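Running this now, will post back.
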Amino acid sequence: MKKTTNDILDGLRMGFPIGLGYFAVAFSLGIIASKAGLNAVEGFLSSFFTRASAGEYGVYTLVAAQAAYIEVAAMSIVVNLRYMLMSAALSQKIAPATSPLKRLLMACCVTDEVFAISIAHPGHTPPAYTYSAALISTLFWATGCAVGITAGTLLPTNMVTALSMSLYGMFLAIIIPPARTDRNVFYTIAASFLLSGLFAIAPLISQWSSGMRTVLLTIIISAVAAWIKPITTETDDTDKTQNNRNR
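Update: finished.
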């Protein structure tokens, strides 16, 4: 019992600073959600159960465009596929005796930051540690989105428009640094801009909804990039070096 309590307190301690960062990002996301017609309660619930900035942004954009349910579902699956890989990696840090239900709940707690602190935990990662870190950071995330929606309905239109640009700035801050150091990332980003523009004016594809075009582009570009320039791991490099020596 004492160990579980300590795990909970450790998770809350690690999740609190994550939550502070989440609040700022979620506030900007709430501005986007308000433009899609969501109220504060809907925004809080959707953010509480989703906790994915890119995924939620895509969903809110499609909702604003009155996209079909299938398009919204496809966008969510494609954009959030990385969490399947994170959950698989986290499973290696869970004690063998952990029940399937607890494993499933830990997978549901995964975000980029919660995954990072769970993987970094020494030894096996206690479920209570992941639960508490995810809970407090999620409360900040969902509250930030709700506050952003409320602000979006109260502030002047020109201020709401200005604040809505902050989320785009966040995405640029994510993609620009690696693009400056990795030309493959730069080529992928450039291809996404170019193909997105071409798809918008192509005779047949331009008649599709923006959501369907985005889903298709995401699948095509990521698949081609992974096929042409797969990310090599340290193990792969070691294996290649050993094979070369054997030859």
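The mean pLDDT is 82. More later if anyone needs it.
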